[in-house]
Amino acid sequence: MLGHVYVTFNGHTVQVSHKGAALLSYLALEGQSHHREHLADLLWDHPQSLRNLRVELTRLKQQGISPFPARQPMLSLNCPTDLEQWTHSAHAVTENTLPDWLARVRGFPLSGLEDVGSSNFRNWLDQQRWRINETMERTLTEVYTRFSQRGQAQALALIRERAGRLGFTLPDVVAPSAPLEGSLVQHHPQQAELRRIAQKAQDTSSSQLVFLHGLPGTPRSAVAAAFQGTPWKAMQVQMGPQRRLVQAALIQQLVRTLPEYKAPLLDLLGHLTEEGELDLIQISAVIARAAQPLILALHVIERQPWLTNAVRFVLDFPHPMVVVLCTSSEAVRRELQGDLGGVDWTQLHHLSLPAVGAQGIQWAMQQQAQPCTPSQASRWAQCTEGWPLYFQTLWDTQALPLGRCPSQPDAATHAVLTDLHGLSAQERGQLSRLAQIQDRFDVAQAAHVLAEPDLTGVLRLLRLAREQGLLVPAAAREDVQLPGLTTWVNDLETHLAFVSETVRVAFARQLPAPERHQLRVQLSEYYQHRCPAMHQLYAVRAGLSGCPVQAEGFSGVLPTPDLAQPEPSATIQARPWRLLPGYTPSLSAAPRQELRTPNGYRVALEGGLLEVLRKGRLGPAPLLALPFGPLSAGHWELKVRIDLLRNHTPEPQPYALGIGDGGSGPQRHTVAPPAAPEAHVTGLTSETATGQPTVLPAEQWILLSGESSGGPFELTVQAMDVALTISELTWNGHSLLGSGRMQA
Question: Where is this region: Disordered (predicted)?
């Protein structure tokens, strides 16, 4: 079709009449069945047209072309065309194969059919030529862009020459493609795995199913970035309860992805049925004819009864396709996995998109040619809770934090609330009231805030919020085991917390200001005799008279720094700390693994580094412990860089890093309060068992070392906001970062 129309069969050219070529071209490009009477009137347009069609079909059969069943009123043709082969091979064109690829474009498309058929056929012919020309020009531009970015001038000259012959206009200078929306931060290992799964689907001509879980907005950008510039066409559809609307959205995506099948798809769009099974069969028939490898990303925010059968049907479809079920809710992901539990395990894949850490932030800044120190990247990872959409929004609005973290952007709040499902307006309002609690809370506290004397309704709300993944059980102390990054919460734990500070703030903002003020007054009274620190917190935020205003962002009760070196403790004997000027840790290729605890601590291993981040509530900071051992007596060393520590309440006393035996109390390293709320962190304080602190520099690598008499050993963190990185932790020369339980 890329020039004069001709037909091949088993690799040999077959001589057919103009009418025969027109008939085969029409059916191949239409991609759907047509009645014999319609075809006859289209090609002959006179009373004997149906007889002439039978004669032409007989001639084709005599020449070995007999794809049409006898005595069937409907005719269709599913065969490849040179247009499909040419466009599908465009991604693989190299400078060596470019001349042969260009030579396949021989001239004006569908030549030789100008005087064939009725006026309706000639109108159709004009439309098809316009569509094919658009496809050819777009494909040439894509290939031209790729060679332009590589600086291959000879290839560019060949493409321009052929485009000029065809009357196409190509840009003189092609700029690099703009970054994908929301893709400033990338998940390279997961994107590579998606491409590997797609290759498996291609090699086996089968469908594959991927469960892709990540923060809101992250799966969409990851899928788009993974298949940009590949022969795979990615379609992304937002799921919802209205089946026909979802199918209509899918068809519209297919129209853009497979423009050559626009007519049958739009016809199907106008005849969607209530049941939907027949529609799905017809959609799959179009996909089969297209022979285009497809990625279908379905963004699921709630379980749909009809989705399971639809996915199972697609998985049985012998076509290279990858179905990606994208969720940001752990509860929805578990439901979907349960519904599709019987799927062949060879077709099933699970991927999670971890939150982004300092290394991911630094990579993103390098791609934008922006200076970014490791300490800055660490603070940005802490401020955004590793959420790419959050970081992208700060970047777009030029609000990336240099010191204090800016307020949560509206885009992040909107994304959190948009992904919710199954919550009534009343339930959202109740969660907005609970979000005013700046601490863990139990059922009694929730009932007080909600002013609900009947605990039945309170328990139902809390259970629903847990099912939605909004609330999680949270203990006062959280232990994380390395290197597996595992934690657990006792079944007897009665306290709950919002799953992240971003989620809590999103709900808290929904409560009108007068109600927020009234609730703060009530909470101040509630905590007056229960927790003085929380009482003062709410009194200050409510503007009650007689309460001293404490500068937000740090604690004012830390001991006065002393420049003396620390005295050794009885169990963990610490030597004087030492700066490591010019030290740069060596990074491995290990991908990021991250665990988020119920209290919002993010403990991650990436590139051989251990990272601890938290963006927390204003209330008392929970304790995070990383236990090791028991270990034998020996020498220990730890290289750490602490980039951020902020606290609001003085009790329990917060600190950035503790080193201890898990029993007698750790040596604490904490941030001395800056001179003003806007000031940068000025240093770290190392507090020994004797209570004598010393000032350490912030944002620099420091070596801490000492001797231990053996037994349990643990690192602890207790802070509202913290960002620290550990590059090495050794015991008698053996690394503990690779093993959370190592007998040294």
Answer: 663-691
CATH 2.60.40: does it fit domain 572-735? no
Q: Which two tokens stand for residue 108?
A: 């004006």
Q: What is the reported pTM?
A: 0.67
Q: Which runs of E-coded beta strand occur in 558-699? A: 572-574, 578-579, 593-596, 601-606, 609-615, 623-631, 634-646, 655-660, 667-671, 684-687, 693-696
What average pLDDT score do residues 468-473 get?
A: 91
Structure tokens that stand for 227 in this block? 């298949």
User: Who contacts 199 (Cβ-Cβ below 8 Å, separation ≥6)?
Assistant: none
* Average pLDDT score over residue span 160-174: 63
Length of the chain: 744
Q: Is 12 exposed, middle or buried (0-12, 13-18, 19+ CB in 10 A)?
A: exposed
pLDDT of amino acid 556:
30
HEC profile of 280-320? HHHHHHHHHHHCCCEEEEEECCCCCCCHHHHHHHHHCCCCC
Contact 619, 520 (CB under 8 A): no
- Residue 174: pLDDT band with limits 50, 70, 90: very low
Q: Which of 51-60, 87-96, 157-166, 623-632 has the lowest mean pLDDT?
A: 157-166
User: Hey, what are 555's tokens?
Assistant: 């604690």
CA dihedral 118, 120, 121, 122 (to 10 degrees): 90
Cα separation, 102 vs 105, in Å, equals 6
Q: How many C-beta atoms surround the C-beta of residue 80 within 10 A?
A: 12
Among 314, 320, 319, which Cα is nearest to 344's?
A: 314
| CATH 1.10.10 domain locations along the chain | 421-511
Report the CATH architecture of 188-352: 3-Layer(aba) Sandwich (3.40)
Domain with CATH 2.60.120 in the chain: 572-735
Name residue 517's amino acid: H
CA distances from 337 to 194, 328, 333, 343, 640 (A): 18, 14, 6, 9, 40
> What average pLDDT score do residues 472-481 get?
95
Q: Is the CATH number 3.30.70 carried by domain 421-511? A: no
Q: How confident is the model at residue 383 (pLDDT cuts 50, 70, 90)?
A: very high
695-713: average pLDDT: 83
Task: Spell out the SS3 assignment of 342-394.
Answer: CCCHHHEEEEECCCCCHHHHHHHHHHCCCCCCHHHHHHHHHHCCCCHHHHHHH
Name the phi and psi angles at 522, rounded to 5: -65, -40
Q: How far is CA 611 from CA 63, 483, 598, 660, in A?
A: 72, 12, 17, 19
Q: What is the DSSP letter of 577?
A: P
Confidence bin at 550 (pLDDT 50/70/90): very low
